[in-house]
Specification:
mainly alpha, globular
Length: 661
């Protein structure tokens, strides 16, 4: 890995930060549901866009001088630098961080002073850019939401200290995630041989040996043309209604007008060519479970409504029922424990390497000495680095005002349960978008009432939920994907780790500068409505309800449904271990009531059906022959989405609903 490759990667990171900022703040100003968000997934369209530009430029440079061009390993490192930069610029950090730090001051009601009396006294001055001892709607927050007047400047001085403080916490959390990913990499990649669907297309593109044949494949271009044609027609239809439309999005609930059907929770039919392509790459039991368990949860709903039960929604997850959300919570915990159980032989080797890491190399057992030679970091560094970063986060949270034991539970369950399982989803299922139906705060409610936390802890947790924990589309899955990508392309993982770390640091700073300028220029009320209007209010509204006893002090249903979800998940694992033909995968059950399944279940069904028929009637050879076609579906949908996002951002043209985010 040459140093200039890192420099090219850093320049590309800056480009991604600019593209994602304008895409997600300006072009998608109406909201995030039908917008094309270029940084909000774990194969970010913004990263693919810049990668394609780099590949074209690299081909031209290598025609002039082959040594001047980038090799496959360098391109792979740059790609994962772009992935991390896109995530940091989007839901992974910055678009969540800035509005959540200031929304509580802008949206507070100056008539009843409720938020001011309840929360402001618990906010340290170094956590926010406004004065917690002052009134609501201070200058810095009003201009943040309504835009600067002529002659006014961005108040950088008020923002630098709080953003720097939160970046310290974020970097410690990301480092802990990198440590955990390093400790599990060998188990998932070498021992269990997970498919890593999101890695396959980018590595096909950067691999010198396969990229030529892939680009020349007629099957790939046929697959590419299908989403390109349909989404382009739909985009033109929005500006020219005479152009025919083939909708890629349909709400099934509109077909049902009688009880209990009309009381069913929202269910979509979505034509996502990229998800169809990813589903084709998955084992059949995984793709089957991703659509079956959505219907399984809808069947639960139907029975309960038919029997006359009143079903309430999950806290802050309107697309899910309360009883289903806690089944998913129990399932996540059971999966995390099962992942640890299955990894016991590997973790024993890890423990031995950690204990013996300080001994001379010649005194170690050969297997122990070699086991972490090509990892992000040594196992000793990963273990102690994870412990130290966790302890430093506790120090940070204590200084911010959070009880250390509460902080340990929230951060520990977030990284070791929520993010570990979500990373497994990306590695095994290839989910583009990650959103579970619970947070560590909801897991707390299984054993203790939320109100018992008190106003001090709930204030700090409102920030943590809004910035990190409700929409956890952060970089931990990208760490695992990058290590798999390094294996596929023959790159050194330590070199990959350097590039990824540099991209996160640079992206955080660049995204902060670019996004703050955009926000103060336009005003947050004119930008993406989810980031600026809805998300910053959710968690303080929730905390107000908890403290004012508008929700049950302790809901006994939480531990009951949590236990049912955990036990059923363990049953699914036991059946998979006993019967090779068992088609029900626990991951499908865990996510079956969440937003990714609600949106993508129908596309998983199409991909599963296509692969089933091809394997049944054509065999393994036919399956391999069709692989470029399905990879073409992914590339075509992403390329079309990128083009329409750019047209929308630059020219204001209405874009079609391309379901890649």
């Amino acid at each position: 890995m040459r140093f200039r490759a890192y420099l090219i990667g850093i320049a590309a990171v800056v480009a991604v930060c600019v593209i994602v900022a304008f895409s997600e703040l300006v072009a998608s100003r109406g909201g995030s549901i039908d917008a094309i968000l270029l940084g909000a997934t774990h194969m970010p369209p913004g990263a693919i866009c810049v990668l394609i530009v780099l590949l074209i430029a690299n081909v031209l440079v290598r025609k002039v001088s082959k040594p001047l061009g980038l090799n496959s390993a360098e391109l792979a490192v740059i790609y994962f630098m772009l992935v991390c930069a896109a995530l940091i610029s989007s839901f992974g950090l910055m678009t969540q961080l800035l509005p959540n730090l200031i929304g509580i001051n802008y949206f507070a009601n100056p008539q009843d002073h409720l938020w001011q009396k309840t929360f402001y006294k618990h906010i340290a001055s170094w956590l926010v850019p406004w004065d917690p001892d002052g009134p609501e709607r201070q200058f810095v927050s009003v201009r943040f939401y309504e835009g600067l007047r002529v002659g006014e400047r961005v108040p950088w001085g008020l923002w630098i200290r709080p953003v720097a403080a939160w970046l310290v916490f974020a970097f410690l959390m990301f480092f802990m995630m990198a440590c955990v990913a390093t400790l599990f990499r060998r188990q998932w990649v070498d021992n269990e041989k997970l498919t890593f669907p999101l890695v396959q297309l980018p590595m096909e593109l950067v691999n010198e040996e396969s990229s030529g044949s892939f680009v020349r494949s007629r099957a790939m271009w046929l697959g590419f043309a299908l989403p390109a044609l349909i989404h382009s027609m739909n985009g033109l239809h929005r500006s020219f209604p005479n152009v025919p439309e083939l909708p890629s999005f349909f709400v099934l609930n509109s077909l049902f007008v009688t009880k209990p059907w009309n009381e069913m929770i929202v269910t979509f039919l979505v034509l996502s060519f990229s998800i169809i392509g990813f589903a084709y790459l998955l084992p059949l039991d995984v793709s089957f479970s991703m659509w079956f368990f959505l219907l399984f949860f809808r069947f639960q709903d139907f029975i309960a409504l038919y029997l006359g039960y009143q079903l309430d929604r999950a806290p802050l997850y309107a697309g899910t029922r309360y009883y289903q959300a806690y089944q998913s919570t129990g399932s996540f915990v059971a999966i995390a424990l099962t992942l640890l159980w299955f990894a016991r032989p590997h973790l024993k080797l890890v423990a031995r390497r950690v204990r013996e890491g300080a001994l001379p190399q010649h005194s170690l057992h050969q297997v122990t000495a070699e086991i972490d030679r090509d990892e992000y970091m040594s196992y000793r560094t990963a273990f102690w680095g994870g412990v130290i970063s966790f302890l430093l986060m506790m120090v940070w949270l204590k200084a911010a005002g959070l009880n250390p034991l509460v902080g340990a539970f929230m951060v520990g369950s977030f990284v070791l349960v929520v993010m570990l399982v979500l990373t497994r989803f990306v590695s095994e299922v290839g989910l583009l978008m990650l959103q579970p139906v619970f947070r560590p705060l909801d897991l707390w409610a299984v054993a203790a009432p939320k109100a018992a936390l008190g106003a001090q802890n709930l204030t700090l947790l409102a920030f943590l939920n809004g910035i990190f924990m409700r929409d956890p589309r952060n970089v931990m899955p990208a760490f695992m994907d990058s290590m798999k990508g390094a294996d596929l392309i023959g790159a050194r993982k330590r070199k990959m780790a350097v590039g990824v770390a540099a991209s996160i640091l640079v992206a955080a700073v660049v995204a902060f500068i670019i996004q703050l300028r955009i926000i103060y220029a336009y005003g947050g009320i004119r930008l993406n409505s989810w980031f600026f209007m809805a998300n910053p209010r959710l968690y303080f509204d929730e905390s107000t309800g908890i403290l004012m006893n508008k929700v049950p002090y302790f809901d006994y249903r939480a531990p009951v449904w949590f236990s049912i979800g955990a036990v059923f998940t363990l049953f699914l694992y036991a059946m998979r271990a006993r019967f090779w033909w068992w088609p029900f995968h626990p991951l499908g059950y865990a996510i079956g009531c969440a937003w990714p399944a609600i949106v993508y279940w129908s596309s998983f069904f199409v991909g599963w059906l296509a692969k089933s028929l091809i394997l049944r009637y054509g065999g393994a050879t036919t399956y391999r022959n069709f692989r470029p076609f399905f990879l073409g579906l992914i590339l075509g949908e992403f390329a079309t989405g990128i083009i329409w996002a750019l047209l929308s951002g630059l020219l204001g043209i209405a874009s079609p609903a391309v379901p890649i985010t």
